[in-house]
Amino acid sequence: MARSKDISMPLSLAVKVELFKRGCFDFITCRDGLRHEKQGQALSILTDNDHVEVLYGGAAGGAKSWTGAAWLLFMSLAYPRTKWFIGRAELKRITQSTFITFKKVCSMYGCSEVLYTFNGQLNFIQFFNGSRIDFLDLKYLPSDPLYERYGSIEFTGGWIEEGGEVNFGAYDTLKTRIGRHLNLEYGIRRKIFITCNPKKNWMYDIFYKPFIVGTLVEYRYYIACLVQENPFIDPDYIAVSYTHLTL
Fold this sequence. Notes:
Blueprint: H1 11-21, H2 26-29, E1 30-31, E2 34-35, H3 37-46, E3 53-57, H4 64-78, E4 83-88, H5 91-109, E5 116-119, E6 124-127, E7 132-137, E8 157-160, H6 168-174, H7 183-186, E9 191-196, H8 202-213, E10 220-224, H9 235-245
Parallel strand pairs: 3-9, 3-10, 4-7, 4-8, 8-9
Antiparallel strand pairs: 1-2, 5-6, 6-7
Helix pairs in contact: 1-4, 4-5
C-alpha cells in the first residue's frame, strides 16, 4: 500500500537522524553507562570520506548485525531516495533473521512501521522518503558465475552479511555497483560493509592477512570484535558460547 506524502518523522527520530549525520553515535553505542567501542568505530568508518570497503569480523555476539541494520536504517532516513542492499548467500536468511534484527533496530530507535513497508514479493524495504533497501540472494549459480544478474543495478551502498558463506564473485560484482545512486548529490562516499564470523576464504586474503602484515590498502578497513567487547551482551550468552567452543 502506498504511503501518504504527508508522512514525516517524529521529532525524537529526526533528532537521532541529525545526530547520526553529524557523526554522533552515542544513542546507538551507549546504554546504561556502557559504551560499545568497536560498534562506534565501525559506524565512524562507515560514514567517513576515506574508506570504501569495511570488514567487521568476529564470533557471534559482537553486534555485527545490529550495527549493519542501524547503519542502513539511518543512512536511508538521512538521505532521501538513496538505494541500498542487504545480501546473503540465501535470501530466506535475510527475511528470517536479518530483517527481524532490522525491525528490532527500528523499534529501538523509534522508526515505526508507518515510515516503511516491506514488499515480500520483490523483497525490498521502501521508506516514506523514497529510500529503499533491496534484499539480494547471493547464492552462487553455475549459470551466472559472475553475478551478472546484479551487474546493471545501481546502489548508494550496501551490506553483505555472513561473508563467510558468500562467493567471492558476489563481492567482486557488488563492489562495482555501489556509489552509483545519489552519492555525488549528497557528497557521501560509496561503502560496502561486510560482516562475518571467522573463516579462511576471500576475506582472509583481501582483508585479514594484509591487515596483520600492515599492507591493507587505504580504502579498506578491518575491525575485529570479540563477544566480550560487546558490553550489552547477556553474560550467559558468553558462557554458553565458550562452553560450545570447548566441546
